[in-house]
């Protein structure tokens, strides 16, 4: 599979730069097929992995073991659960030993189930159901790592839940089209709206974020790119500069998390969740 070869090559470059953990985009093994209104079941089924690692992704896991560099990989998952086939937009975390540590299934599935006239086709809801694994946090070499996929990054709940679950580092994979017909007035803000929620999420939840995007033209559609590494201070520590295959790296200072917590976000000291509930009860139901 050409995609796996590309990913292995990128992992080798990351390892050569001293990276101990890498993140690849959402749906990194295939094209971003939800841009198409597909009706052929056999064609659709071909985009999903029914096992991980499978024969091809095992090669990537073998490379991780050889390079001692773990990775997170977005892929389309098909699984038999509760007596039926279920399809999720998934990210797997693989350790330095090449073994699967755990997986996350995308919670916020955007777009629609069928094409609506006048809008860019984004049919994720036709091909995936929302994730059913919550926001898990995994131990990776003693560091607590959470995962998120694309539209998740725009939602404060993602960052807050991962933070409350103890994440120190969050790995994100995404595919964002540059053009969305339904919102021309926002077109010039695409990159701003990409980084804004991640910078705010990192800052307000004192986590490091590494976000990996598909970039450039894929099947004629321009994808946004803008891969980045963001510090718990909210600053972008490293930013992709091209729309080609590119590796960005940064040595994350995990002590910065405690510093940022001390300055503003000492949750145990200042956060008051029991009071927040009381206030909303007093205000009465919103609907
Ligand atoms: N893949 C993904 O989640 N993309 C969305 C764009 C969809 S908007 C209909 C994103 O939030 O970037």
From TrEMBL:
Record key words, sorted: Hydrolase
Start and end residues of each CN hydrolase domain: 1-256
Molecular function terms from GO: hydrolase activity
Pfam family membership, one: CN_hydrolase
Name under which the protein is recorded: N-carbamoyl-D-amino-acid hydrolase
Source species: Paraburkholderia caffeinilytica
């Amino acid at each position: 599979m050409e995609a796996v070869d590309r990913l292995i090559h990128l992992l080798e470059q990351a390892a050569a730069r001293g990276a101990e953990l890498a993140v690849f985009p959402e749906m990194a093994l295939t094209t971003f097929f939800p841009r198409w209104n597909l009706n052929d079941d056999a064609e659709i089924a071909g985009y999903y992995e029914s096992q991980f690692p499978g024969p091809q992704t095992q090669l990537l896991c073998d490379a991780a073991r050889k390079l001692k560099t773990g990775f997170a990989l977005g892929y389309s998952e098909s699984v038999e659960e509760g007596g039926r086939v279920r399809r999720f937009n998934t990210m797997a975390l693989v350790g330095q030993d090449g073994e699967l540590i755990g997986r996350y299934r995308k919670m916020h599935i955007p777009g629609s189930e069928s094409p609506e006239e006048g809008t860019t086709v984004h049919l994720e809801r036709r091909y995936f159901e929302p994730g059913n694994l919550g926001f898990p946090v995994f131990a990776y070499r003693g560091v607590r790592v959470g995962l998120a996929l694309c539209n998740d990054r725009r939602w404060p709940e993602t960052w807050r839940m991962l933070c409350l679950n103890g994440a120190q580092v969050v790995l994100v994979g995404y595919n964002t089209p540059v053009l969305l017909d339904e919102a021309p007035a926002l077109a010039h803000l695409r990159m701003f709206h990409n980084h804004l929620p991640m910078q705010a999420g990192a800052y307000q939840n004192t986590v490091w974020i590494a976000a990996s995007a598909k970039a450039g033209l894929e099947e004629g559609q321009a994808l946004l790119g803008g891969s980045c590494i963001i510090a718990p201070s909210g600053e972008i520590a490293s930013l992709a500069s091209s729309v080609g295959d590119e590796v960005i790296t940064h040595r994350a200072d995990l002590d910065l998390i405690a510093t940022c917590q001390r300055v503003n976000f000492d949750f145990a000291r200042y956060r008051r969740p029991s009071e927040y509930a009381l206030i909303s009860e007093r205000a009465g139901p919103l609907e």
